[in-house]
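Hello,

Following up on my earlier ticket. Below are the two sequence lines again, exactly as submitted.
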Amino acid sequence: MVYKRLYPAISLLSVSIIAFQLALMQILSLIQWNHFAYLVISIALLGFGASGTMLSMFRSWFIRHSGTMIPLLMLLSGLFMGLTVLFTREFLSEFDSYLLFNQPGQVKKLLHACLLYTLPFFFGGGALGLIYTIHSGEIGKLYFADLAGSGLGGAVFTALLWLLFPVHIIYMIAFLPLVSALLAATKSNLKVISASVAIAAVIMLVFSTGKKELPLSEFKSLQKTLNMQGSEILFEKSSPYGHLHAVSAPSLRYAPGLSLAWQDPLPASIALFNNGNWFGAIPSGPESEKFSYLDYTLYAMPFVVSSPSSVLVLAAGTGNLASYSLGKGSQQVTMVEPNAGAIGLMKNELAEMNDSLLYHPAIRLKRINPRSYLLSDTLQYDLIFFPEAGMFGGSSGMTATEENYLFTADAFFDAWHRMNDNGFLMVTAWMDYPSRVPLRLLAIITGTLKTAGIQQPEKHLAIIRSWGNIGYLIKKTELSEPEIDKIREFCHTAYFDPMVLGSFKIQEATTYNYLQDENLSNQIHTLISGDTESFYSGYDFNISPPTDDRPFFYRFMKPDRIKNLLNTYPFKDLAYMEPGYFITFIVFFVIFALALALIFLPMLFFRLKGKGTGYTLLYFGGLGIGFMFVEIVFIQLFILYLGEPIYSAAAVLSGILLFSGAGSYFSGRKKAEGKSLIFTLVNIILLIVIYAFFLRIILAGTVHLGMFMKTIISFCLIAPPSFFMGMAFPLGIRILSNLNKTLIPWAWGVNGYLSVVSTVLAIIISIHTGFTIVILLAALAYLMALAACLMPVIRNR
Amino acid sequence: MKSLLNLLFIFLIMTPALGQNYQRLRVNMVRIQIENRGVKHQPTLNAMRAVQRHMFVPDALTSRAYDDSPLPIGYGQTISQPFIVAYMTSIIDPKPEYKVLEIGCGSGYQAAVLAEIVSHVYTIEIVPELGQRAKKLLSDLEYKNITVKTADGYYGWEEHGPFDAIVVTAAAEFIPPPLIAQLKDGGKMIIPVGSPFLTQNLILVEKKNGKTTTLNLMPVRFVPFTRSSN
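Thanks for your patience. The regenerated structure is below:
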């Protein structure tokens, strides 16, 4: 019989575990890079898997001492949550993912950090696992308390982020498991547990009142700016969209790609950073002067040839292009910016500095993901600005594995339909060598023009180049001779060089900015009017247009060409060309090794008696892979639908937890027999295959609806597969316990191990083959489990 | 006492040996990493052989001072790869009478290399801690023709301009107009574009008869490595 206080104890522990997981993701995104978001999911699963292994190995001891161990494990989970910030300061101060390829010792530091971050999940998972083991008869209600806590944890954390920084949230939520420990204590050990809780609370308070700064990577834009003389953090703000810093420094100026013809001084700026990464600048000075430098950048090109009345600025950031457009006489400027935290800052604390731009009557502000806006918008514009592609110095490779739904062929095609008949689309890119970003961008543009039925794309294109960047102006109709002449004159004034001006036949040779070779010109020619497919396959880098199914604009590495590239470039050079890509593999191997050591290898100490290790591996391995592949792909697919990664992660994680929990509960009513398993797995496979082909169509057809309706539709779509996926594991365990009980730890280990590894594996496969393939592989994994069920020993049960 | 004497003996024996090792490392660095990659500018090669690079790197990285790679020096800054320093120096073709401006002093190594060749080097560092460290080190190493100041490199150093050459070691997303103004007619400015560990494209800015042009040079990390016959 479960004593009642155990239910709130479980719920509080689950609230803290989920909130801790999300806080850790935010902290690591701030001090390092976004790669660590999925690393945290793996770390959490690793902790849970390792605790399962521990319970399996010492089952009888833990059951004997459960009265003490349950509250103690809860206490330790909270204590190590509270010490996480200290660990981060001590063990990650010398770590920098940017140096992973330059200092081999960095991998060891990453390994240490992963191990330390695993501890709260290990102890928390241990407490939950022990409760389920002892009170298996009331698993349904207990599991509900767990799931309710998890769902609440996500919601509470997201809400708290508007008020507190993730570090403070960690200090706060770390006390919840201590309360759980008190609730879970029995009469006989209440005094000891109370004393232990008091000691733990004192330790946590001591460490939480000390130095709070976290070791920000020296290579992040924020840290570099803070190193400047006289720099000062003006505002700091936490939001679910990231940790914002507004920084001023007398030497901070922003004029990317400025022409060498510009002679006047540049105004100092205030810079905004989100999670330590550059977000935008707000120049100071008189409104009429501070954006005049933009006349000497590639962004001036559309205003040279037209006077656009309605302008759409996608991913508008701090609104420099919106201000510039207003200054050029545009009547209505639609700014699309999803970062609500940054918008809040610009509307309030920074309003005076940006001349109350967001209150300007001609500004139409849309707080939504730009791609989701393009999907749902019905208006048309004279000019559409896309954000800049690539990064100065070709350092965009750090983001190789981040999805980017704005730089896909589908996004540009949507934008094409939002252009007026005489409308323009403007986008710029930083140049790199060997060329990747400018070529892939052009591949998207020419692909869009060809899909729109344009036979000679060059007639709709003006491509000009400065010393460091390249600008593409696309017109819906053909560029006229007077327009071409105006661009030519502009190039002469601003020391820019035209590459395509309505045709390839440029009268003038390069006049101002000489390149190292003729490659870029030839490649542009081929992409516009040559055999593009042969070029894509022949080029050593992947520059084919990304799609919504494979939205990884900055992933240029072709695995089959790496060997070839290594003949030209040493590995270190290649790795730093696209660090994000190679870091994903390092993270995978770190997680692989840890899961092997903490989950899989200890299982080998068990003497596996009797037959069945093979089918257990097939069945529970298949479930581990399939479940995580579906979860990761769902998170990716719902980003576009719900508009933000954080909404998608919240909806998918809570939806899957809720409905798979319901499935798990329902499975108790089914007979533990082979037929039930086969029925469940066939349903899962059929649903996954249907979703692989139709989910995207359903999402595209309803993307225009309001957020409330879209949330309901999301839950309705997530429910069916999750329900059956939740049934498969407990049913399998019940059948296995009838067949061969000694194999249960083995099943637990195999499932845990493959779940951990599959999280990162899903990302690796996605960037190479796309989401559709990953979801079909999930179906294949469940098919593997089905194959195990068809073995006579199970089928006949 | 005996152990102290032993330590002293080892110290006395090792110190010249270490010095000789560094000397040999420098000679090898110039031959393998620089000459073999096509830098033939003799004053640059001599300067690279003369400047004690190991003095400019953090103590923990002294053993890697002559490696063929950039090294972190703190504050998110690096000391450039030896080849990049040599290539940037050679490309401006420095002469003994030159007055050179450097933007981004960092460790002070590039300034020291230039100071071996030209008449005077003015160098500016924006991170105060790095600027002070470089100033002290260059003074300790008795470089009397280097002047260091901690300031915003954007403005250049007007009172000492115009300059025969400008070396920008910390590239920005724009080329500051005051630097172009402080470049002599016929002068050259060299700027690396890219993060230190990434491919670095060098951009050469030339001012001739009032017209400013740029030339993207080959990415310096990708120059084919030609091993000597030895």
